[in-house]
Every structure is written in C-alpha cells, then in structure tokens.
Amino acid sequence: MRVTQHFLSTVYIIKGNKVLMTWNKKMEDWIPLGGHIDENELPCDSVIREAKEESGLDIELVDSWDTSKSKNLVQPLHLHLDHVADDHKHIDLVYVARVIGGEKLDQSDEGTALKWFSKQEIERMELIPNVKEMALRALELCKNL
C-alpha cells in the first residue's frame, strides 16, 4: 500500500493573553489556523501566508531559540504526526506567533468562525488533547513578550 504524506504548518496566534482558534466543521472542534505547505514554500512562510488568508492578520513567528548569531529558520514549537487514514498522513509543523498588524475577521475566507480564547477558557474546554496542550504552551511562551 502506498502512503501519501503531506506537510502542514499550523500556528497558535497570541494577542495579549488570548489565542486565536478557528472552528473546523469536519472535526467539529476549535483548532489553530494553518494548512498545507505549498511546493517550494518554506514552512515558516507557509504559516504566515495561511494566517493572513484565514484571519486577515499579519503575524510574527515566535522563536524559542536565540538565532541572533546566525540566519536560521524559525523553530517550530512542535512536530505532530496525524494518521488521517491508513494510507494518508499529515506531518504538521506547529508554530507560535504574535499579532503585528492586520484586522481579524469574524470568519475566515473559508467561512469558518474565528475566536480568541483565554487560558482559563482553554483549560475548561474539551478540545483535541494535543490542541489544548499546544494552546496552553503557546500562551505560556508568549506571556512575557
């Protein structure tokens, strides 16, 4: 059996003490913004593009590593492997970003709802376990920025 693997980039966008999530109709749950990485596109460029397309926001990726001494790609917060089906996998590079401009829409270009959630709201919600964990980690990472 041939297995198809797609690379995706996902971003937890932080503004103040809240994280932006989008409602996924298929999964019936709140998830971070993101999508497939286009051919010949860097993952960090992909996630910035996806955020702009889905929310109208301009973002700056947060890098937990000091890259001031050299030109490096922004490090993802996490790598996630999702078995979509027996013959289909998603390899997801998960980033954290903060808002630097643009205007948040109430709906994404794809017609899904967007909403900001506080740490307390995330803690009370029944989310996909890794989504909840990453949202809380992203909020913690950005609390002093």
CATH topology: Nucleoside Triphosphate Pyrophosphohydrolase
- Counting structural domains, the number is 1
Sheet/helix structural class: alpha+beta
SS summary, helix count: 3
Plain-language structure description:
The protein has 145 residues and is an alpha+beta fold. The protein has one domain (4-142): Nucleoside Triphosphate Pyrophosphohydrolase (Alpha-Beta Complex). Helices cover 23% and strands 41% of the residues. The chain is built from 3 helices and 8 strands, in the order ββββαββββαα. Strands 1, 2, 3, 4, 5, 6, 7 and 8 form an 8-stranded mixed beta sheet that branches. The longest helix has 14 residues, at 129-142. It is globular and about 45 Å long. The model has no long low-confidence stretch (mean pLDDT 88).
Quick recap:
23% of the residues lie in helices and 41% in strands. With 145 residues, the chain is of the alpha+beta class. The longest helix has 14 residues.
